[in-house]
């Protein structure tokens, strides 16, 4: 009577293996869910950055104020007969 119980127990363990450890098992599902969550967070950050860049491109295409501001602060350009004064900021 002992052999059938051992065989059934072994069969139950063998049937559980694919469920927990196999290619599509729960452990793999949990791992993929963690990766999905982290990728969604990264995508959200990139979407926010892209939105800001899109607004900046739109400003550069439509208005001269953004172009002038960039020329002044990034390139140090000034208008004719204009004096540029820069004051240091204290921290």
3D shape: rod-shaped
Kindly report how far apart the N and C termini lie.
83 Å
Task: Tell me what portion of residues adopts beta-strand conformation.
Answer: under 5%
What is the β-strand count? 0
Summarize the structure.
The protein has helices at 2-20, 26-62, 64-75. By secondary structure, it is mainly alpha-helical. It has one domain.
Question: What do these coordinates show?
Answer:
This is Cell division protein FtsB. InterPro entries: Cell_div_FtsB (IPR023081), FtsL/DivIC (IPR007060). The protein has 91 residues and is mainly α. Helix content is 75%, strand content 0%. Helix 2 (26-62) packs across helix 3 (64-75). The mean pLDDT is 84.
Keywords summarizing the entry:
single chain, 91 residues, mainly alpha, cell division
List the helices and strands and how they pair.
Blueprint: H1 2-20, H2 26-62, H3 64-75
Helix pairs in contact: 2-3
